[in-house]
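As a warm-up, study this chain.
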Amino acid sequence: MKTEYSCGFIQIGHMVKFLQHFWEVATMRLAVLGDIHGNIRAFEAVLNDAKASKVDQVIFLGDLVVMGLDPQLCYDLLMEQKPLVMIKGNTDSSLENVKAFPVKNEHDAQILKLLKYTSIRMHQKAKEKLCNLPSVERLDIGGISLICCHGTPYDEDEGIAKDIPFSPALSKRLAEEKVELILSAHTHIPADFQRDGIRFINPGAVGYSFDGDVRPSYALVDIEDSHIRCIHRRVDYDINRYIMEVEHALEGFQLFGRLLYSLKHGKQMKMVIRCL
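Now compare it with the structure written out below.
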């Protein structure tokens, strides 16, 4: 076999193609999503923006269906993306034992009513798949070791926030993980900060936000040659139409009032007893 080492135009052209291929392989662009909460209109808008941004993979950080009008549609659309990571959040876990959900007060009764609203609008196989999802995923992408979780890696009801210090116990456990990046959701507030040698990225929420901006939020995360770049994206959609649809569904479901408040103000209602 003859091997050519010339630097003619043809060989240079092959080299350019090789370098382009190497770049495509070495750079991974992730669309990191969380807290969709059954809002198909916002979810579709986010996916359209992510596709226009030429993402390679989708990572989903939990809370897919509860507290929204279209749980099955959101489930189907997420499955179509064949996400690299798909974990469950605290509200997804609540669907596992709807029949055994404890009702101690009126607020619990309203939560149970909302869970039933979601449950009857989903296929049984979809609910089983959702309930069987892991709560945490540990993996390596492009030389970066990372954890994907909903709240913390140890508690899906506990959020990670830039302005809230970690407990000594949480700091100790995180240090023992020896990871470089943690992707988490749950707070409905986008974040990107460094603490104790770990980078924390929260994509914000697709379904409804708590940071004062009513638009859906997600994160574009580029991992290239052991480096991480993050851009938070805010996306427009027909939120007024969704608000109108939620208003029509409000009768009989008091907790949708909380959803309406967040859709209109981008904030969480006061006097919240349990985070949905």
